[in-house]
Amino acid sequence: MQQLFVISFDTEDAARGAMQSLRALEREGQVHFEDTAIVTRDPDGNAHVKNELSAATEAGAGIGAGIGVLVAGLAFPIVGLAIGAIAGAAIGAITHSGVDRDFIEDVKADLAPGRSALFLVTQSVNAGALASALRPYSGTVLQTTVDDDFEQTLKDALRG
Length: 160
What we know:
By secondary structure, this protein is of the alpha+beta class. Helices cover about 50% and strands about 25% of the residues. Strand 2 (about 30-40) and strand 3 form a beta hairpin. The longest helix is centred in the middle third of the chain and has 19 residues, at about 75-95. The relative contact order is 0.26. Residues about 55-60 and about 85-95 have low confidence and may be disordered.
């Protein structure tokens, strides 16, 4: 079951640092991300969204690269690999079930200048590990789809 977490931070660096800590958890198998995005608003008010590859896009790229090698790889292996990866990533991106773009736009519109928001869609997550990884960062939980106890654990961790 997917879980959504939206956390705001005072700075873009804090959101990026939190994401790096969470990627380390992913490498350890403590969390499996379906999709992630970081939204930032410059002090002058301009907003930016950085969508990372979703799991569906990554899987599509991998499968597409394999098919590309099989289909076109005999004559042109590098070209087949590249074409397959691009096609697979596109299909994965179209079909992914990650962060809703309209929801990102709503949060982006409400984000104060200079602040950032981290969007996480997880397939599985170790609650204790997630809270520990976020503890060094001061943030505010904007929205989650987890139970009240899990959400409170995150809020406590983000209080620093």
